[in-house]
Amino acid sequence: MKKYFVDDTIYFVRTKGSGPILLFAHGFPLDGRLFEPVIDKLASKFYCVVPDLRGLGQTSLGANGRNSHGVPRVKMGRFADDLAILGSEVACERGCKGAKVFVCGLSMGGYIMLEFVRRRPQLFAGGIFCCSNANADTDGNALSRTYLADTIDSYAIRTLADNMVPSLTARETPKDNPDVVATLRAIITSQKPQGVAAALRGMAVRRDLTDKLSKIEAPILVLGGESDVISPVELLDSIADAIPNSSRATIPGSGHVPPLENPDAFADAILEWYGRTFE
Length: 279
What we know:
The chain has helices at residues 36-42, 76-93, 108-119, 139-151, 154-168, 173-176, 178-189, 193-204, 233-242, 258-261, 263-278; strands spanning 2-6, 9-17, 21-25, 47-51, 101-106, 124-130, 220-225, 246-251. It is of the alpha/beta class. It has a single domain, classed as Rossmann fold (3-Layer(aba) Sandwich), CATH 3.40.50.1820. An 8-stranded mixed β-sheet has the order 1-2-4-3-5-6-7-8, sandwiched between helices. Strand 1 (2-6) and strand 2 form a beta hairpin. Helix 1 packs parallel to helix 11 (263-278), helix 4 packs antiparallel against helix 8 (193-204) and helix 5 (154-168) packs antiparallel against helix 7 (178-189). It starts with a strand and ends with a helix. The mean pLDDT is 97.
């Protein structure tokens, strides 16, 4: 893994490939390992940049991963700004300073991608919006996230994994592909409590960006799993309908984590979209 100094912390980043820069934003409470099964194939068209986001994986929380009272919290805009800084550093390193970048965001990463588009449209070439939504949390969901953030510790993270993993995969995945379940559990239980708490608090206060979808000018691929109970097909259809320059693809045999459950189909959908839209 490579290391990049991003604002006040060191980002740990997997990189591979050639071509335009494709930044990845993983879901909660995961890290860049979510995308490992798809990087080899996507590297045929993109320079893939796969970070562990602030506070998750090997990337530390940093001073700006806390609010003014010192409580761990990373807003979606902070994550988006980190990605913009990282993308600019990579572009300079590769001799293409100022180049626009692509962003692939899954679940929490989808919230981050929408913030990236809102805050840095001049840097955004296009994106893959995967297994996510554009809404703010309901009051009840926000309170639940905040309570979990306030009480999280290493034991609670193991409980969080027990509770989350069944809803992240398609119903058949535990039987047909138990390695996916083992990988998800290993990633979740390896996270640090402060990083998990920071992301929870950030998601709880995220803004509703539904009304911004119609203003996105760059091409977007809206991608999801056919058995995703968190971001179901109908929800993603409505998001694609709201974005003027959108395409839509559904990954068979997968739930909320198609890069792990059906990596070939996930990568192929992105490559087909890119070839049809940009080549």
